[in-house]
Amino acid sequence: MASNEIRNFREMRDFREKRDFREQSDFRDKRSSHERLNSYEERTYGEKRTKNTKRKKKEQSEYFFDYSLLFIVLFLMGFGLVMIYSASSYQAFLEFGDSAHYLKRQLIAGIIGLVLMIVVANIPYHFWERFYLLGYLVSVVLVPMVLTPLGVASHGARRWIGIPGTGFNVQPAEVAKLCMILFLAVMVCKMGKGVRSMKGFCVMVAFPMPIVLEVYIITKNLSSAIIILGISVLMVFVASPDYKKFIFMALLVLAVAALVVYLVVSGNDFMAFRGNRILSWLDPESDPTDTGFQTLQGLYAIGSGGVFGKGLGQSMQKLSFLPEAQNDMIFSIICEELGLFGAVAIILMFVMLLWRMMVIANNAPDLFGAMLVVGVMGHITIQAILNIAVVTATIPNTGISLPFISYGGSSVMFLLIEIGLVLSVARRIQLKEL
Amino acid sequence: MLTDNNKIFHRKKIFVVFLLCIGAFIGLFGRLIYLCVWQAEYYARMATDLHERERSIKAARGRILDCNGKVLADNKTVCTVSVIYNQIEEPERVIEILCKELELSEEYVRRRVEKYSSMERIKSNVDKAVGDRIREYDLAGVKVDEDYKRYYPYDDLASKVLGFTGGDNQGIIGLEVVYDTYLQGEPGTILTVTDAKGIEVESAGERRIEPVSGLDLCISLDMNIQSYATQLANQALATKEADSVSILVMNPQNGELLAMVNVPEFDLNNPYELPEGTPENITSEETQNILNSIWRNGCINDTYEPGSTFKIITAAAGLEEGVVTPGSSFSCPGYIIVDDRKIRCHKIAGHGSQDFTHTMMNSCNPALITVGLRLGLDSYYSYFERFGLKTKTGIDLPGEAGTIMHKKENMGNVELATVAFGQSFQITPIQLLTTVSSIINGGRRITPHFGIQTCDKDGNVVDVFEYPVEEGIVSAETSATMREILEMVVAEGSGANGKVAGFRVGGKTATSQTLPRGSGRYIASFIGFAPADDPQVIALAIVNNPQGVYYGGQVSAPIVRQLFENILPYLGIEGDQNEQN
Q1: Tag placement on chain A: N or C end, fewer CB within 10 Å?
Q2: What value of ipTM does the predicted structure carry?
């Protein structure tokens, strides 16, 4: 009886794989002894699935929609809007005579983003598969576009491209992040088992490099370059069963970072710009006027908030003391106004977001979907971690915004598109499988 | 399907990623706890410092009161006018009004008003009336803060004793410096919360730290005696066309100074005013030199050769050591030969044969040189030190000069001889007064002083100052003998001009030629005390470079006489009825 069911299950699965995805040849591979240990799990799942198959066509409503994820994202965005208004109203009134200036712009971007998210969530994610190469090429071309007359400079860096006629600017790095997630997800599936070999690994790491270097060299945006690289490494890490390579890589990165810090501290002047940042990170009070200023002002805000904060709207540091209060440094204003509790609440929301995405990735109907979700998860989490680390002066200062909360139209739109993708993947999960 | 067979490692890896991220979040959580709990106080304080702009409130400086409670140094309310750049709305009007009201040049005011700073002081020590007028214009960005300015009701009275204060309420010279810590008090602050551009955050309000007023200083100086002595000194200055006249009045029993006059004095309410006839185009350094000489307290800051008044010290040493008695006889041929030098007496014909009391009455140089030589160098030098002449008196005024004396190993008999009658070394007038006081008061070396105690606003005594007294400088017998001898000097000797009808006065005159010898410049001085048998008051008058008659007995003794005639009854000192009869 049991063997019949397994056979039955295998047939069913083969059928679905053909339908779902072209080249999952590994599935027919012989199982290793390790994987056979999981036969119990398969058996139990198999039972359910047998019934499932029978009812599949008529029970579309049992497909999954992740309301928790949607709620967390909406919460973060709503919270972000409140904090943007709190952090920016004073400055906005001084500059534009309208204390809701930043709030309105963010709200518009948020609404557009939500619409895009719903649209993307309703398109089966396999639709995007065919654009993977196009996306990659667009990223490669788009980043240098900042140097053309379309490029827009602000905050002392040339990182934006103006969309003619709309007044909105787009950061090509945001486009590149999204395209990189798509590209790598497709590549992982295309390479199949090849990704496990050294060669495959090298190829996977080599692909994002041109864009990473472009972003770093052309737009001088180290943080975006790090994020793109981080997303890529994370996706390769998930795609490959190996650990050693990654542990080695992590140690290598740590060693290089330690070396750089050592070189800067010992007064080697071969890294002037970044060197200052590192020095002011190690001792922000030594340089309170220039590079260390923002870091120090952020620390003042965090410290003066204490455990319970000064209360919403009571921040002093937002009164022109802290540069970019509504942007990269918004987390320190949250700490000042809402204290440690507010900060912990935000961190918990990100942890829940991470958890939801992990659940979706683990239950994704296929590898492509899983890899997409892993990419988005990597993007949001790396960015959140780096932002909080920068604000708390845990790592040297580099401009990274806090996902969903910081002010930044193009950032929030692309993040919502990514969430749309995740929701789209989630919709393909059958409820019974959870 | 990731749940399927060999794809299980993907789930595992995703879970590993999840755990890594959770780990990172937990790390950041720890960091946040460190910042928000452990470091919170530190950063909150730094942030508050950054947000608050301070305006200080001057503390009222303590007053200075004389021994009868008369106020010698007081405060009056004045205003400080400042501008706050970010709050000025009509800069042109502000400049115009401030120029007009404060009588400042437009260029100066414009520079201050247009300077980008959080707060710029335009003028301090503005009259309250002017400050009130400016306040009535109600100009945005102009602040008028009231504070205190030092005010001296008697202008130049005891100017070099009291001293004056600078713009920041700090003492510059005199008692104002020495008792600065008591007088100053703690300035307060008004803390206003501002944004980064210095604009006040209205909802935050002000935090005010109240200033603590300084303590009042009660001094031993008697305003009446001081002003009378000043009058006498000015008289002598005018009639004798002297360079300067100093009068010191002290209680020899405890060292309390009743008057210290150095004419010409200066106006404490305008201490920086240069004397008339000063050329206008002088450097600031020259100006400072002139001011320093005006502010100089000759009784303390300058040394001089005491001359014959120092014979008191030689005589006391001789009596104490037993090398002479009042009855010892001396013979003065008009000179004395010491080693290879012939030192003349002021009376060229000589005083002939005389006892020791008469040598003092005649102020005979050879006799006192003989006493000095009898003591010998070692003994004389040790008395010099024992009397405290080599140390400072410790008076509570700044800049006391030390004694300029030969080194012992460089002294021979000639030097000893000259020192014995008060030449070839220099001491300050206060040093002479203190040493003579210790000899006549029974041998207690007292510390001359002004400061008695400090009081708070309500008159409660806060600090009482105590001063060291060294007992046994000379024996009580020597002291009594000296009093008798000095009384004889005034009664029948060279100090006869110091005699006050109805009182027993002791004293000694001196006429010292200033260096270089032969310049024709003299210092005439007289030191007198009363009553001679129990001294309650001692006075020293020094006339620097008098024209015409220059003898101490003629120039200075009458000053002390006039002083005593008035202050002895005033101080309630009983006269000697027998003598009066």
Answers
A1: N
A2: 0.81
